[in-house]
């Protein structure tokens, strides 16, 4: 597949304007509810971008983002229990997630395709049992196993939380842009198109895939810690829940797997669905499942992938770009 | 007891292994489809009032038909899009099933508590719950049936041909799409059987499909995909691991032992004992 990267007319100016406006939202007196929507949007955006890096660009269907989110969240929480302020736990959380990705790459990278999916499916389930049986620090607060409140976050304002999520969400978009244009991204594209040819032209397939897996774990973990600062407590059943995967996968698939804009569009829709369906809690997941199956059958490349094929989109693109 | 429990795992894994070996797709919804079988037995028992094992007379054709339709109209299409699409769609089906169960039967734990499910058999010094013994017997019967079916019938031969080389089988005049649909249907018939015996052995909830899926995946990988004997031995290995794990580390840790074993098998012998 030929990859071209069109440049927008007017350079970076429109993008910068959008970013600055988004950054100023909390001080502009936007309703709190809207800040919450946007907070979740940025968190899920970072996670979906990283899932897209694996599924859309590296050919790895990862079923274990919950493992990275939960581990990072736990690292951060345990550090607050050891008396450290919450913000010192953000980076270590992500690092633990990345190290864990290196560790589990030993079993899950053995064979490609299906086996990767099996391996990554098991990992969050194992971690959930581990944290149900093992409490790293302190006494039982509530629930079974390692349920903790995150200490010292009561003073965190919504604006601060928003900026954290905003920073990670935007960073993940920029990171994707950077990765896809770097040696890693072009190598990954070569592997996706034909892994044998890629390997014979000197690309280290294993290292590139491991690289994208670790980067994805790191950023997913980062977003996970911010989410748990917002939530204020963590417990194993929800930290390692399959629901993380459902949300992230849905966002990427709706928007378009293997497209850069896909996760952005998909995450907007998923956050919208999340709040509209909240009233119908019992059937909310059924609807999400139906959407997932429907999109995959009818438009496997998602909204963006399907739009790209249409004529109006192409002429619009021609209008907006210099070429 | 672990060995007998292994029979149940083998039956659960058999349907997965069949689809895995023939259609080359990993059916992430298999665990939930097995639980669908359990709920069918539950409805047959509590609403209509027939014995769960007897209800299989209706349950097997129903599940076969469901599987046939699922593969023919949904998964065959997904299969042509890409491997990933099949995986994601199966995942979507799994989410739908779990939540439909929850909606209809509530998240409460259910069991197929018949008079014989709780009784046990004494053979010399060992007392074995009857349900476990039944699991093992059913596993052997189902496996012998599948083996003979694959060897003797036209459909069995067609399935084997399609498993070995899809394109060549197609050239030889086998309608591979149809064969895949039949294969999935048979896999679902096994899921119906597995579901009933699972319900007799363990209590189940709408989300227990996941844990049985993971064990079944471990069984299939350990046994080598598509091998009937391998599936049986893999099932026994996992039954033993879980029972021994529960014995040495406490009941709470027995699932942990089984799950960790899946990862270890993937790391050490990814092609399985009988894998090609």
Description:
The complex is a heterodimer of chains A (323) and B (276). Chain A has helices at 13-24, 32-57, 65-81, 90-108, 114-133, 158-181, 183-193, 195-200, 205-231, 236-239, 242-255, 262-276, 281-298, 302-309, 311-320; strands at residues 148-149, 233-234. Chain A is 72% helix and 1% strand. By secondary structure, chain A is mainly α. The mean pLDDT of chain A is 83. With 276 residues, chain B is mostly helical. Chain B has one domain (2-208). Chain B is built from twelve helices and two strands; from the N terminus they run αααααββααααααα. A two-stranded antiparallel sheet of chain B has the order 1-2. In chain B, a hairpin with a 2-residue loop joins strand 1 and strand 2. The longest helix of chain B has 30 residues, at 52-81. Chain B is globular and about 60 Å long. Chain B starts with a helix and ends in an 8-residue tail after the last helix.
The pLDDT mean of chain B sits at: 85
Residue fraction in strands of chain B: under 5%
Number of domains of chain A: 1
Largest sheet of chain A: 2 strands, antiparallel
Gross morphology of chain B: globular
Give the strand order of the largest sheet of chain B, numbering strands 1, 2, ... along the chain.
1-2
H-E string of chain B: HHHHHEEHHHHHHH
Order of strands across the widest beta sheet of chain A? 1-2
Tell me the structural class of chain A: mainly alpha
Structure annotation, total helices of chain A? 15
Largest sheet of chain B: 2 strands, antiparallel
Give the oligomer, counting copies of the same chain as homo and different chains as hetero. Answer: heterodimer
Give the integer mean of the pLDDT values of chain A.
83
- Which strand-content bin applies to the residues of chain A? under 5%
Would you count the extended β strands of chain A for me? Answer: 2
Give the uncertain stretches of chain B in residue-range form.
Answer: none
Distance between the termini of chain B: 30 Å
Helix fraction bin of chain B: over 70%
Number of helices of chain B: 12
